[in-house]
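Good morning N.,

You mentioned wanting to compare the apo and holo forms, so I went ahead and generated the holo version with zinc ion. This is what I fed in:
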Amino acid sequence: APVRLTDYQPPAYLLDTVDLHFQLDPGRTRVRAEMALRPNPAAGEPGAPLVLHGQELELLRLELDGEPLTRAVYSVDAERLVIPEVPDGAFTVVVETATRPEANTALEGLYTSGGKLCTQCEPEGFRRITYFPDRPDVLARYTVTLEADRASYPVLLANGNRVAAGEGEEGRHWVRWEDPFPKPSYLFALVAGDLTCCTDRFTTASGREVDLHLYTEAHNADRGDHALASLKQAMRWDEEAYGREYDLDLYQVVAVDDFNMGAMENKGLNLFNSQFVLARPDTATDADYTNIQAVVGHEYFHNWTGNRITCRDWFQLSLKEGLTVFREQQFAAAMGSEAVARIDSVDRLRGAQFPEDAGPTAHPVRPSEYVEINNFYTPTVYEKGAEVVRMLHNALGPEGFRAGCDRYFERFDGQAVTVEDFLTALEEANDRDLRQFRRWYTQAGTPQLEVRSSFDAEAGTFDLCVRQHTPATPGQPAKEPVPIPLALGLVGADGHDLPMQLEGEEAAIHGSRVLLLRYEEERFRFTGLTEEPVPSLLRGFSAPAEVDYPYSDAELAHLAGHDSDLFNRWEAGQRLARTHLLAQADAVRSGGEARLPGPLHQAISRLLEAPADDAALMARALTLPDEGQLAEYMETIDPDALHAAREAARTGLARELREGWWSLREQFRDAGPYRFEPEAVGRRALANTALGYLMAEPDEAAREACMEQFREADNMTDQLAALRALAASDIPERQEALEAFYERWQDDPLVVDKWLAIQAASPLPGGVERVQALMDHPAFSLTNPNKVRAVIGAFAMRNPVQFHRPDGAGYRLLADLVLELDGRNPQIAARLVKPLTRWRRFVPEREAAMHAELERLRERAGSPDVGEMVDRALGDEE
Ligand code: ARG
Ligand code: ZN
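and this is what came out, ligand included:
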């Protein structure tokens, strides 16, 4: 049965302190939990039974106020332990349980990774450690004693401060940790293992000395510098941008190889998927370095937005995630180029969130019901949630937003609150009414903005008519208008912004301005114009909406060349490419042949001729929208037609602009030793974009250059770019390079992941067989989520032409894997269902084949995780 937001009840009992004692052992760990409870005065339900959550636990002993309880006075099932009668006032419960970390393949609760013992508790993993009020609105102070074999587990970590340690019997030792900040159980963590510590130090604005400890396995000790540097940047940035300081004397980060997600913000003890923390120039790409900086920042920022102030219930997930992703994006913009950061986050949003919002798993930023909360760690909750916060930031202005956040921190510190509380804080600090704005949290679907214009040369007026419409989503047939901040400029023939004066206004505004749309249809008249402008709409992507405006090729080219808003400059080029690639795909569908569209050719060749002052931006402008994104704009998705259209354009550009690509590559190849700096990152991106085009038509010279780069590169960015280009071409060097790469990196799991992903994502024929072979390769492992994502994720999300093979073999392979993972790691299994959910959008035979696999999953899958995804994917047709 689904959990509903409207069913929320405050906890009947509060937990003041909890004392945990772990006798750690990978086979069977014993846990003793002593909890000091009392009735919740705010619950108004005196005498309620005490309900503790618990899963997969062996119950060894239960005590109430020091007295052992027998089975006659409590009940326990697969989900909870209930003590019907407890004292009126404060009381103590002691629970002793055992769990089996080694047998825990779900990677939730206490599990093993490599030789380590570690935990993942968000959202509901703590209940696999002990019977507990495992809900985010129960906050307690934790004392944790970890006891383990000293030789295997010399390092014993938990949240907070290390307060005591000692020797035990038979080679065992123990360490006690105390976390002074009350926290919900999902922020609990422990790690035990043989780890090397990289240390650093940070002095906070108020002079507190903080020790920074980054733990890795010994052989990775030289890969922690970038994460530590990023951490210090994040700590400083949060002080400067939000006035937030760190609050403990110790900040610990541990790299874990087997991890379901990216990272976890446990209080004072972050756990990271190795992929998002370990980096060395020869093993990690610029993209990895960028991701690490962002994820380290993200988890650090959670200390205030998530930990000090947490969520009342899991429907409020975006309260912490949307806000923290927004803060992460601001941080990324401050550390590099603002325009590039914006382009990359919008690209992610449109690549993953727009499709979600347009399909059967669409849900509001604050969902109103769920079966399995793990299925709601989605692009909508994270990325769209961040866009909603960004709109608030822009609507209130930086100072107003900061004042609102200050109020939020001050008023709710130490509490578990709601999205509503956050909005109220913003309203109160700014004396503003954000009532209509709340719809962004409750209404799913991407608003479509239809914009039409007319110019009256005689009157000097330019009229805009803007209509908004949000398509129906499951459970929400009718939509209300949402407030949309439409940032725009009017670009003149000389490429400059024209002054904007709305009818009735005293003076003109120069540069961009924001029109706040509130109604289904609105009209605006700009006056005093002596020429017809080109409107630059939704500058900086000022709202998560889709703009429909009948731009001509010439207008798009004009914006792509001159728009003062760098985001929209890129956007105009992408729009031009998209329009023409979709037209080519249509031509292919009606039996024609795809070719390089003239206007696209011209646009790219103009870009190549213009001086490139920002290499990173130019690299993005030269990159065609990917097939996944193009598919979203196709009436009925035909993956083959899209692939043919995009390939024709790519190879056409490769051929027609050959000289340009060569000289671009020569000009931008980065000579010196690797440095992670925006300038150098941009140069590598641009040179490798050029290499990609050269290899789209792999003549002798290109192949040689590519092999040389592959062999000589001193950094993974360049080496991998070369390997990717080789792996996508049917040339003899392909196999040679893949083998050499594996030979060199086979002992490095993170690099092997790249090797797997590149092959799984290669559009060459035989993709399904290739993926099958990769899954049989010794480097693959079904129990490691990174390996599964590298192979299956890359195949199903980044290789549309092979995944959507006409005979349905790609779908079958995916569904088989979902079934295989269903019993071991339902969280990962459920995520893999995603690529099948948009079955209704595809050409009939693919639609039918995807549907058949979903039906098979519905019949055979056992976990609620997969079950919920499949039910949503299939929709109402029970
Ligand atoms: N709170 C983590 C983050 O975004 C994500 C943890 C999600 N874990 C999960 N099992 N769903 O930083
Ligand atoms: Zn987060």
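The chain has 26 helices and 31 strands.

Happy to go through it together on a call whenever suits you.

Best,
F.
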